[in-house]
Amino acid sequence: MINKYLLLCFFLLSMVSCTSNDAEIPLSDNLLIGSWVNPIYDGETTTFKRASALPDKDYGISFKLNGVLVERSSGWCGTPPLSFFDYTGQWQLEDSLILISQEHLYPNNYAWRIISLTKTELVVKRELTEQEIDYRDLMDLFDDLYELKVNFTCNNASNWTYTAYGSKACGGPQGYIAYPKELEAAFLQKVNAYTEAERAYNLKWEIISTCDVPREPIGIECLNGYPVLKY
């Protein structure tokens, strides 16, 4: 009878010990859950350290169980004195890829590839998402049309003209661009290619823009060899 009593006490003690240890284990077996601070940038990788909470006056990012992400940042400017704000978003994990979506960023979807992850350290590498790849392709098209005219010096404004380019998500062009008349056929072809590509990009990624209409220039003048639109 005594042996049975001792066995029962040992069993109950074991249960209490297990409960005590479990209390120290995070609510999720996903080590990513929690706050990460003190980013150290080394080439293409960034190393974070785990913290109990986000810092008041420094960068940090927090991954929550419900898929909500909180980023504490001073924004893009970074001019002292810095003011830090919380930006929320969504995150999900696909294998070793962290997919992040935030409304205040553009492009508003980006991804981090997990290089290593322990209880105390997170090392990630920025990886281009499909949207960012599409955006780079779009910018390559714009560079193509810009490079076409860059070697032409503006000495006589009568040799230059302008055209609308691009497609705002709300409709209408992004703006106007000057080009030499002798390049008209080739230049307009590239402008049309860029405009159609931007229209397709806006539809694919549901881009939002303002609906104001850019003012059309009234002419061109040459300043220091460059064409300047007159309004």
TrEMBL record:
It comes from the Bacteria. PROSITE patterns: PROKAR_LIPOPROTEIN. Keywords: Signal. Residues 1-22 form the signal peptide. This is Lipocalin-like protein. It comes from Mariniflexile aquimaris.
